[in-house]
Every structure is written in structure tokens, then in C-alpha cells.
Design goal:
The protein has 217 residues and is an all-alpha fold. Helices cover 71% and strands 0% of the residues. InterPro entries: TIC110 (IPR031610).
Length: 217
């Protein structure tokens, strides 16, 4: 910027034009920095909102393709947060609006991600069951429930039904909200009578011989 100021003096450039040039260079540098940050996954929707509050024009600073990628990353983070929560208004309306992307296209992206991640979450949960990592297992089942909230699923099938029962026991042991436990029961294809039996088992012992001290939340 010092060079520009010196140039302004040497050629007699009016201050207004000089300021426009400086603003243009600053904007270009900021846009490049933002695009790099988004491309490297270092910018979140929270920071995008902060930038907009500071009057930064996201639409011109960050390309549409990168904004779409940021949306996809944000949704992936929601589906892997381990909370089991999915806010339709936030995901389908607020985030697309903040990123200035097409809401209908964004919704299709959410549905595609939910369908692909739902079964993967079950596979991961079973793997964690076999590893006796019950804390991570519960998080994976919550991810499954979040995907199901986005795109309601039919009951899932598994080649070892006993493992589905074990998943249910472990999840019930974590004291989840009743609606989450009920929905998981449906997704795992467990009948009401079987679920009642499994719920009573959770108070006595955990599956796979894991001791109480290993199951800490």
C-alpha cells in the first residue's frame, strides 16, 4: 500500500481513484484468502455468518462451487456429530440462505448424504460393538438417527440379528431420550416384546462381557 501512496503522489492520482485501487487490491486479497480457507476446510458456517455480519459479500468473495462444498461439509459434520440431532429449518433454509445457494439443490444433497451415511453408521456401530467401544458406538447410532431424521428409513437388516439386539442394549444403557430409543428400536427391526426384554437386560449386564467400569459416558 505504501507503493500505491507513493505512486499517487508521483503521478498526481486523485485520492478517490487511489482509494478505489487500494480497496480493489484489498478485496482481491481477501477473496483469495477466503477461497483458500474454504478449500482447505478451515472455514465454518459460523465464520461465514460472522463475515456477513461484517458486511463481507460472500457471493462475490467465494465461488458458488466452494460455497456448495462448504454446505456439504457442514451437513457431513451434522451427520457425524454424535448427537442424533437434525434441525430441518437450519439445514434446509438458514444455511443455504447464508451461503447463497439454491435451497432445493441443497436439500437433494442432504438426502443423498443421509442415505449413504445411514447404512455406514450402522456398519460402524457394529464394528465398534465388536471392539467393545460402547461410547463411540452410541455416537454412531446417534449419527444413524440424525440421517434417519433427514430421510426416514425403513427397518434395516443385518446378517447377525443378535448384534442388533446388542446395539439396542448398549444404546438403552446410555439413557437416551425415549423418542430416540423408540426410533432406534424401529430401525433395528426389534419388536416391542423383544425390546422390553432387552431393556430389562441392560440393568443387569452388558453384551459381549464388557464390565460396567468400561462403559463410561
Amino acid at each position: 500500500m505504501e507503493q500505491l501512496t507513493e505512486l499517487q503522489k508521483n503521478v498526481g492520482l486523485p485520492p478517490q481513484y487511489a482509494q478505489n485501487i487500494i480497496k480493489s487490491i484489498t478485496t482481491t486479497k481477501l477473496a483469495a484468502a477466503l477461497e483458500t480457507a474454504v478449500g482447505q476446510g478451515r472455514l465454518s458456517i459460523k465464520e461465514i455468518r460472522e463475515l456477513k455480519e461484517s458486511s463481507v459479500d460472500i457471493n462475490t468473495m467465494i465461488s458458488e462451487s466452494l460455497r456448495q462444498n462448504l454446505f456439504k461439509k457442514t451437513v457431513n459434520d451434522i451427520f457425524s456429530s454424535g448427537t442424533g440431532e437434525f434441525d430441518e429449518v437450519e439445514v434446509y433454509e438458514n444455511i443455504p440462505k447464508d451461503l447463497i445457494i439454491n435451497a432445493e439443490k441443497a436439500k437433494k444433497v442432504v438426502h443423498e448424504l443421509a442415505r449413504s451415511r445411514l447404512l455406514n453408521s450402522l456398519i460402524q456401530a457394529v464394528s465398534l460393538l465388536r471392539q467393545k467401544n460402547h461410547k463411540a458406538l452410541v455416537s454412531s447410532l446417534n449419527d444413524l438417527l440424525a440421517c434417519d431424521k433427514a430421510v426416514p428409513s425403513t427397518p434395516l437388516s443385518w446378517e447377525v440379528p443378535e448384534e442388533l439386539s446388542d446395539l439396542f442394549i448398549v444404546y438403552a444403557k446410555s439413557d437416551p431420550a425415549p423418542d430416540k430409543l423408540s426410533r432406534l428400536q424401529y430401525l433395528l427391526g426389534i419388536s416391542d416384546s423383544t425390546a422390553e426384554t432387552l431393556r430389562s437386560m441392560k440393568d443387569r449386564e452388558l453384551p459381549n462381557g464388557v464390565g460396567e467400569e468400561e462403559f463410561v459416558f
